[in-house]
Amino acid sequence: MLKLRLLQPERSFFVLKSFCLSLIDAGVGLPFLTASIKTNIMKDLKKKHCVPCEGEAEPLNSLQINDYIKNISPEWKVIDNKKIRREFTLKDFKGSMAFINTIAPIAEEEDHHPDIHVYYKEVIIELTTHAIGGLSENDFILAAKIDDVDVSGL
Ligand SMILES: C[C@H](O)[C@H](O)[C@H]1CNC2=NC(N)=NC(=O)C2=N1
Asked: Which PANTHER family match (predicted)?
C-alpha cells in the first residue's frame, strides 16, 4: 500500500487492476470483482475495435450474449443466438440511403460488415460474424458504434 501511494494515481489504478486480474487468472473466486471488471470492459464497447477472427474462435454462447446485449441499445434483438438485428425507421428513402452511407465507412474502418436490408424508409441491420457462423465481440462493437450514429435528421 505504501508503494502504491508513492506512485501516480493512474499508475496505482493500473497496478491494482493488474493485481485483481491476476487473482482472477489464479482462480481466486471474487465474483463481485469479476463483475465490476466485466462491466468496465463492456462500457467501453464503442471505443473498442474489431479484431480479425478467421475460424479459430468459438461463437459466443447464450450466457456471453446476455452479458454483451445489456451494453447496446435494447432495440437490438438476438436471433437464434446467431445474430443481432435492429430496425431503423428514417424519414424517407433518401434518409435510408444517408444512414447506410454513414454506417458503411464505420464497417470498412472496422473490417466488420453488417447485412443490410432496405425497405423504402425502413433499414434492418443484422450483425453476425460470418467467419465463425455466430456472434463474436465484433458484432457488439459494431452495434455500439451504429447506436452512436445520430439518425434524428435522417
Ligand atoms: C479478412 C476480413 O477480416 C474478413 O473477411 C472479415 C470481413 N468482414 C466481416 N464481416 C462479418 N460480419 N463477418 C466476417 O466474418 C467478416 N470477415
From this structure: PTERIN-4-ALPHA-CARBINOLAMINE DEHYDRATASE
Residues 101, 146, single domain; the answer is yes
**pLDDT tens digit sequence for 95-126:** 999 999 999 999 999 999 999 999 999 999 99
129 in contact with ligand 1, CB cutoff 6 A? yes
- Determine the Cα–Cα distance for residues 84 and 97; give it in Å rounded to an integer: 21
CA of 86 to the centre of ligand 1 (A): 19
Query: ipTM > 0.85?
Result: yes
Which of 25-34, 36-45, 62-71, 89-98 is the least confident region?
25-34
pLDDT in tens, 1-23: 445 455 565 666 556 666 655 66
Distance 124 CA to ligand 1 centre (A): 19
Indicate if ligand 1 lies below 6 Å from the C-beta of 111. yes
Domain coverage including residue 56: 51-154
Same structural domain, 145 and 101: yes
CATH of the domain at 120: 3.30.1360.20
Q: Cell numbers of 149, please?
A: 450514429
Domain count, the chain: 2
Strand order in 77-79's β-sheet? 77-79, 83-89, 122-127, 115-119
Ligand 1 contact, 83 CB (< 6 A): no
Residues 100 and 126 in one domain: yes
